Amino acid sequence: MSDQHVPVARWARPPEGPALVLLDQTRLPAEEAELVCADVPALVAAIRSLAVRGAPLLGIAGAYGVALAAARGDTVAEAARLLAEARPTAVNLAYGVRRAERAYDGAVARGADPAEAAAAALAEAEDLHREDAEASDRMAGHGLALLEELLPTGDLRLLTHCNTGRLVSGGHGTAFAVVRAAHRAGRLRQLWVDETRPLLQGARLTAYEAAREAMPYSVLADNAAGSLFAAGQVDAVLIGADRIAADGSVANKVGSYPLAVLARHHRVPFLVVAPVTTVDPETPDGAAIVVEQRDAREVTELPSPAAGTTGGVPVAPSGSAAYNPAFDVTPPGLVSALVTERGVVSPVTENGIQELCSMSLSG
Ligand code: MRU
Question: What is the pLDDT of residue 363?
């Protein structure tokens, strides 16, 4: 593992580009390989295969995708549609695409030539990238302050699910950024990392990030979480989100909802950390969130870095059917607090979400 960070996403100008160059997350932790997306179909394939993933980063990638189409002289509206539809659940993807598309359309409406309109789309993608890094630092600050308030004494044993760090963000991420802040403040005794079946974002990616940050961590099989709670080994759960509905329902990686139920039973705080771009006031409630259903082979085969998200090692008889939702939905009543760059919402209610959306930055 090198000490240098390969950028999670970088824009390449000519002669290397125009292209969006991604750290290929399907190859981690075995290899830090870059994946060059020189056109929109390549980027759509990277999004679908989870080479690039995680809600905030999907937004950033979507915005750069629009800039890429514009730089290539492709039809921007069609490219924007393909990108926004590449995965359905994380609202950040459509948000990032729309922002860059609006910037492009606005420039065209003002009489810009194609190169100027493409530059406007790229500038918007770069703004979103930078804003996400800033949001990440603010979430880390608000989240650490909340942990200090809820759990003022003792070292913390935190449990997380999926991957929410540098690999999903322009900065240090969402929930993982809070864990990192706790670690840097000397409060982290143990990070429990759910492996996160079927695609192992916890074991492959969060453990990789925790190791790079020299955190004390252990990976556990998802179904071992219950016995950890029962043993009193979890002080708080921190997760990210892919879409937060107007009523505060939280869609996140499948396996989040059972953790929320466990946390409530064991009276452990269950904290969701997400930028405001993940809140979707147009989705009224949890039932209205479209949950992505993925290929059965992701469940019937174990992923292998060489073979990508499907085409790994078979673990079920060939042809077995599978239930493979990529996300589940946690009702707001099970969420102790929502930590955003604008501050903390607790309890998580429709009114609280409305106030958050109308609020400006603080802290
Ligand atoms: O399918 P993935 O790997 O894109 O799912 C990612 C997650 O569920 C993350 O927890 C979520 O995007 C929040 S990351 C800030």
Answer: 42
Interface ipTM > 0.95: yes
For residue 108, how far is its CA from the centre of ligand 1 (angstroms)? 34
- Amino acid letter, 348: V
- For the entire predicted model, the pTM comes to 0.96
Contacts with 293 (C-beta within 8 Å, 6 or more apart), sequence order: 324, 325, 326
The answer, yes or no, to whether residue 6 has pLDDT greater than 80, is yes
- Asked if 192 and 234 touch (Cβ cutoff 8 Å), the reply is yes
Mutate to test the pocket of ligand 1, among 53, 57, 222, 324 (most ligand atoms within 8 A of CB): 53
Q: What is the pLDDT of residues 169-228, one digit of tens each?
A: 999 999 999 999 999 999 999 999 999 999 999 999 999 999 999 999 999 999 999 999
| Surface-to-core class of residue 75, CB atoms within 10 Å of its CB (0-12 exposed, 13-18 middle, 19+ buried) | exposed
Query: d(Cα 198, Cα 217) in Å, to the nearest integer?
Result: 20
CA 285, CA 248: separation in Å to the nearest integer? Answer: 7
Ligand 1 atom at minimum distance from 90 CA = 12
> CB of 162 closer than 6 A to ligand 1?
yes
How far is 134 from 280, CA to CA, in rounded Å?
20
How far is 154 from 163, CA to CA, in rounded Å?
Answer: 25
The token pair that represents 192 in the structure block: 């429990």
Residue type, 120: A
* Beta strands in the chain, from DSSP E residues, in sequence order: 9-12, 19-23, 34-37, 156-160, 188-194, 217-220, 236-239, 243-245, 250-253, 270-273, 279-280, 301-304, 308-314, 327-330, 337-340, 343-345
Residue 77 DSSP SS3? helix
